[in-house]
Specification:
Layout: H1 2-29, H2 31-34, H3 59-72, E1 77-82, E2 85-90, H4 93-102, H5 130-140, H6 146-170, E3 176-179, H7 180-197, H8 210-219, H9 223-234, H10 236-241, H11 249-269, H12 276-284, H13 295-326, H14 328-342, H15 349-353, H16 356-368, E4 375-378, E5 383-384, E6 391-392, E7 397-400, H17 402-406, H18 425-430, H19 449-466, E8 467-471, E9 495-500
Parallel strand pairs: 2-7
Antiparallel strand pairs: 1-2, 3-9, 4-7, 5-6, 8-9
Amino acid sequence: MLLKLYLAVGITLVLALAAYLFLFLNKRRTFWKDRNFPCTGRAQLVYGDYKNTNQTEHMQDTNQRLYREFKARKLSIGGTILFIIRSAIVVDPDLIKAILVKDFNFFHDRGIYNNAEADPMSGHLFSLEGQAWRQLRAKLSPTFTSGKMKMMFSTILRVADDLKEFLLENTANGAVELEMKNVLAGFTTDVIGSCAFGIECNSLRATRCQFREVSRKIFDQSVWQMLWMIVLMTFKGVATAFKLKATPAEVEQFFTKMVRETIEHRERNHVQRNDFMNLLIQMKNSENLEEKLTQNEITAQSFIFFVAGFETSSTTMVNCLFELAMNPDIQEKLRSEISKACGDGPLTYESVSSVEYLNMVIDETLRKYPTVDSLMRTASKNYQIPDSDLKIPEGTLVFIPTYAIHHDPEYYPEPERFDPERFNAENRTSRHPFVFLPFGEGPRNCIGMRFGLMQTRVGLITVLRQFRVRPSDNTPSRLVVDPKSGIPTPLGGVPLLIERI
């Protein structure tokens, strides 16, 4: 009799829980409809408007479809449901400007889960919110000035020389097919390893590089990893209370050990280097409390420095070389401009920065292949959309779909065509300034933009000064984005023919 009672109670509880879950998901699904806010009207119970994301299509493709749908309906914004998260896609450039700059006080956070106490690796500049973000941004901004970048330039040049020697060795007997995605990932790994940790990774030649292996755990996202992040972002208060972690244990252990050992070695042996880590150690030991960093803060910033600087720059370079291989006339013009500005002697910070056509080529690469497919902001309070009766409710995750905007034919005719002239002075000034957003805009733009562009310029110049890049029989006709990658990276390899000039 007692067993039957327990069974009945158990079944009742399961049914009640199932009913609650259904009502919760259904309320989320119909959130925008219930408020007469423009939306797709097709949100599903669990997936919302993102059923195929991270499975058969990348987030950039999903957001592009939604962007095009809302734009066709002449909307400035449209409500969406990211699995169970209330979200929205911004279409109008003036509204984008308001969100990123003019009304930044409503949208100062990205909405990404962080808990610096329980999950120290999440306490970095990209994820932190509110006052904690403001204080850390103020501390770190002086480390990314042009003066500090110039200080690190010689370190990047040493790694670039290794890249040049690697390519010379491989082309000793003529043109050779190289998988350039791996080659350039090795270059940026060595740059970040040297600038952030003072470590000679030698990943261009190493058969096994721990930095590269750890990076795969960060960037190769399974559906379950994505869902875990969705849960943490949706139930942030519960996740914080239970001290849940977003960072994989192996990743946390690797970076914690790496930073601790690097700091101990440098302080014990009085090592001084012109790199990022040296600047952070100086802040750690500063007597000025407004500058001071804890060791956990240094670890978190070193982690995000690696994450932001490794994959984004290597992907930009491989995408750029692919387009130059497919457009030999552009490649030859760029090589000529590099020769005029840099000559045959050693590269300098000034000469690398002065190749205007290179800047145009990189900008066109970042337009066609933005390294961040969408900018994310969260409404900290209800926001009245200017010249509209619509409000963005507090807590809404707002997507500014960079990829979709960069491929909008209204702003970039024939968007699939690679044309650096889009970024000459005349064309640049003729467009709305908020339809090119490779590094974001406003107070929360990418703090490492100067460093990323510097290593990208040095890497491309190193290749193009002495080598010609051509498609091989195995080079794809177009690059396809891996749907499971955390940031948009080419699916599979990018084999190209490299030959000495």
